[in-house]
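Lab notebook: predicted structure, single chain.

Context: the supervisor wants predicted structures on file for every construct in the current expression panel, including those that have not yet been purified. This is the next one on the list. No modifications to the sequence; it matches the entry in the shared construct table.
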Amino acid sequence: MTGRLIALTGATGFIGRHLLTALSARGYRVRVLLRRPVAVPEGASGAVVGDLARPMNMAAALTGVDAVVHSAGLAHAMSGAPDDDFRDSNTEATRKLAEAAQRARVGRFVFLSSIRAQSGPSAAAALSEADPPAPTDPYGRSKLAAEEALAQAGLDWVALRPVLVYGAGVKGNMAALLRLARTPYPLPLGSLTGRRSLVSVESLAGAVAAALEAPGPLARPLIVAEPDPLTLPEMLTALRAGLGRGPGLLPCPVPLIGLACRASGRNEVFDRLSGSLVARADGLEALGWRPAHGPRDGLAALARAGG
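Prediction complete. Output recorded below exactly as produced.
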């Protein structure tokens, strides 16, 4: 490794923390771009403070940088955030950072997008990069618009579209699933058959490295997903295996689960529980990327480590 200098946004977030560690371990020098003054994260070679939406000091931040890895943004998490918040944080901030990177003659811009830029919470068939994008919510549309802004920025870029990410420190839906697995009670979820692709944060970090090291130009989105999509019962079984326990799953009619979700105003939760979202990482695999492990082993390890 040549010690190339990477500018990393989002280094204090769930994915960004792992990327900082993984990229530093691969020999990259990592300059973190922070929104506010905080302690410089361990492993960073330097830090610059600034607002990505108003990057007044981006020229200094990107001086001498070989590539940008942009993982900052407003997460989905079914938060109900206004459309403008997603647009400002995910689209406009990415556009302005890309424009600054183009002016600084940065070699490559790696954007952490999302599978939701391509699909809603479920899909009838396995997704690939060849499928036309069809986001269904403000979060997904803001990520797709950011990808389109990159395509117009005049620099070499790649947008990684990870499926549901799991790993130490995870939040959101996967954290809720982990809490569910830790309960001592049998769970009436054994009849759910929808399959979902997953990707560990370690596999995602490997995908970022593959995107940085691939010969260019790339200028396209790439799906990030481990093979072997799992049903929700299989995910819970893997998590509970990591805890040294049996599955503890009971069959329950799927319409009854749907009724309970709808009665509590959680229609999207039911879509996630019952629907399938399978994706293929054909483009990344063609670049030589291989996942760090399969999701069954990864989920068991996550539960053993305490999440």
